[in-house]
Amino acid sequence: MKFTASLLAASLASTADAFSVKPAGYARLGSELYARQPIMAGNWKMNPSTEADALNLANGFVALLHEMEDTCAMDEVEGCTEVVLFPPFPFISKVKDVVGKAGIAVGSQQVYYEDKGAFTGSVSASMVKSVGCEYVLCGHSERRTLFSDDDVNINAKVKKTLEFGMKPILCIGETKEEFDLGITKEVCAMQVSKDLAGVSKEDMKNVVIACEF
Questions:
Q1: Is 66 a catalytic site residue?
Q2: What is the pTM assigned to this prediction?
């Protein structure tokens, strides 16, 4: 199911973190500008505290959507917005069971670029794919700053996500220090160039770029 933007602005505000993402190539003029559906994604980050709370949030979210009049089926109305939720890893499967019935997709907040091995605390693309994830966040600002996720690793994660048939949402954006220096455009351009290196034109159809402000 897809939902109109006015509904999403109200309903996604209940999630831990909500951000809109624009498809790659959004800034092009002409018919390509709206060639792809817009997406509204809610990143729950390290919230809520328990599985019960996560299911309550998911059920409440679905109930709210059903109460609104401006919902629309997947291909019924042009201009509707796709909804994706990113719960913490332990809750993904059960949250999907709840929201999937309403046509809402779920994604993983991150993956590691190796398929398996001695990487304690990491999850692989195959793991999150197997529990129903359709999207993966790559390069979120908190992963970059708190966990030292550099562009080489992010690029590998983007490619691994595509390899397993999921869609990477590449997060780009400057730090406060970079903003104060007035180099926002240069930073974002560099991130896009490095993080999408080696990604084919065909694969770009499945890549979404999110600007974090």
A1: no
A2: 0.83
Query: Which residues have CB under 8 Å from 49's CB, separation 6+?
Result: none
The residue to which tokens 């997406």 are assigned: 39
Cα–Cα distance for residue pair 7/71, rounded to 1 Å: 8
- Give CA–CA dist 34/30, Å, rounded: 9
42: buried, middle or exposed (CB in 10 Å: 19+, 13-18, 0-12)?
buried
CA angle (202 as vertex; 198, 206 as ends), nearest 5: 90
Q: Let me know if 140 is a catalytic residue.
A: yes
| Rounded distance between C-alpha atoms, residue 206 and residue 24, angstroms | 9
pLDDT digits (tens, 9 = 90+) for 172-212: 999 999 999 999 999 999 999 999 999 999 999 999 999 98
Of 51, 134, 142, 212, the active-site residue reads: 212
